[in-house]
Amino acid sequence: MAAPAVAALNTTAAAPLKPSLLTLTRFQLRNGPDNQRQRAADFLKAYVPVARRAGAGPMGVFSGTVAEDSPFLLALSSYPGLAELEAAEAKATADPEFHKAVTAWYAGGLPYMRIEVSLLRAFGGFATIAVPPTEGRKAPRLFELRVYESVNYLTLERKIQMFEQGEIDIFRRVGLLPVFFGRTLAGRNMPNLTYMVAHDDWAARERHWRAFGGDPEWKKLREQPGLSDAEIVSNISSSLLSPLPFSEIR
What we know:
eight-stranded antiparallel barrel, Alpha-Beta Plaits, 8 helices, alpha+beta
C-alpha cells in the first residue's frame, strides 16, 4: 500500500508553483541635513520583521551603488497573491512596532522625496524569489537590477518566452545567480519585464557577463527570427545595488 502513497506524494511535489506577486518599493532620497538615507534605513530595519510576521516573503533592501537618480533605497518582497498582499499590509500597519518605527522616522524632518511602488508577476518558470545562499560568505554580494522595456505586449511575451525557454538556464550555466524575474503589472515605462541577478563581486560580474555574451547557445537563441533585441526590446536599463546589513537577500 506504500507505493501508491509515494506516487501521489511525488506527483504533488512536482506540481508547478503559482507565480508570486513581487513588489519593488523605491524610496527616492536626497543628501542633506535631513539625513534621509540613514533614517529610511532605520525604518526599513524595523519594518522587515514586521512585514515578515504579517506574511511577506523574503525581503531584500538595497541601496544604489551605480544607478541613476541616486540616492535611493529599494525594498523587494513577495506574496502568494493580491489577497495575501492586502492582508499582509493590513496586518503590518496594525502592528504597534510599525507605528513606533513610522513615528520615529517622520519625527526627524522630511523623510523622503517620493515613494514609487512597482507590482510584478513572477514568471511561470521562476515563480518565487530565489534567496542566494550565504553559507561561508563574509562579504555581501553585488546585485544587478535590469529592466527590459518592450516595443509592445506581444514582443514582451516573446522576450519572456526567450528567458523561460533558455536564457535563464544560460545565466545559471555561466555563473550568473538569478534572484527573480517578473512582468510589470503596474509601474513605470510599461510594458516591461524586470529581473535581478547576483554577483560575488565586481570582477565576477564582468567575467560572467562576458561568458554570457560569448555563449554559443545564447548566440543561437538570439539569432532566431523575431528574437533579436532590435525586434523585441526598446530600452534596457541597469542598476547596481548593495544590500543593507539587515537585508535577507544579500
